[in-house]
């Protein structure tokens, strides 16, 4: 199996894990203002859900970054932009309120790289949220 295939399997395993699915199923239904509010309440289960989801996407970003030119293959089946849009209110709030300016910085870099890829010929069909939702792996 190629390194890219191994990375794609690893990404899928993380994103279909019971803990991630439990967390993301609540998060993806919430409004941005609710997600931001949850990120300030460290003693609630929603805060833990956010930290799990953001932590997994940070880990995915670190893993994907090692692929170089092969990242394109991963981008076509990984909804980076969609997940950034969902989680960004919490990331911004955690960065500010917990004084962690670099929190989820690898995920943000991945999102920036993904946006650049989305403007290329191979990425133009994956730029919209609805295009990415097909790969979201949540219901």
What features would you describe in this structure?
The chain has 139 residues and is mostly helical. Helix content is 68%, strand content 0%. Helix 3 (32-38) crosses helix 6 (80-97). The radius of gyration is 15 Å and the shape is globular. The mean pLDDT is 88.
Give a quick precis of the structure.
68% of the residues lie in helices and 0% in strands. It is built from eight helices and no strands.
Name the quaternary structure.
Answer: single chain
Structural class: mainly alpha
Beta content comes to under 5%
Order of helices and strands: HHHHHHHH
Shape: globular
Helicity range: 55-70%
Tally of contiguous helical segments: 8
Please report the total strand number as a whole number. 0
Reported for the largest beta sheet, the result is: none
Distance between the termini: 30 Å
Unreliable sequence segments? none
- Overall mean pLDDT score? 88
Radius of gyration: 15 Å
Q: Helices and strands in order, then pairings?
A:
Layout: H1 3-16, H2 18-27, H3 32-38, H4 45-65, H5 71-75, H6 80-97, H7 105-118, H8 129-133
Question: What features would you highlight for this structure?
Answer:
139 residues, mainly alpha
């Amino acid at each position: 199996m190629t390194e890219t295939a191994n990375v794609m399997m690893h990404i899928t395993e993380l994103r279909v894990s019971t803990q991630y699915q439990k967390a993301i199923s609540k998060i993806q239904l919430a409004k941005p203002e609710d997600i931001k509010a949850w990120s300030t309440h460290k003693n609630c289960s929603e805060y833990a859900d956010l930290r799990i989801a953001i932590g997994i996407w940070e880990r995915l970003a670190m893993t994907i970054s090692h692929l170089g030119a092969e990242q394109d293959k991963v981008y076509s089946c990984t909804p980076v932009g969609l997940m950034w849009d969902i989680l960004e209110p919490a990331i911004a709030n955690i960065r500010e309120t917990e004084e962690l300016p670099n929190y989820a910085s690898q995920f943000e870099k991945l999102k920036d790289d993904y946006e650049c890829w989305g403007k290329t010929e191979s990425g133009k069909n994956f730029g919209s949220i609805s295009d990415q939702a097909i790969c979201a792996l949540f219901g």
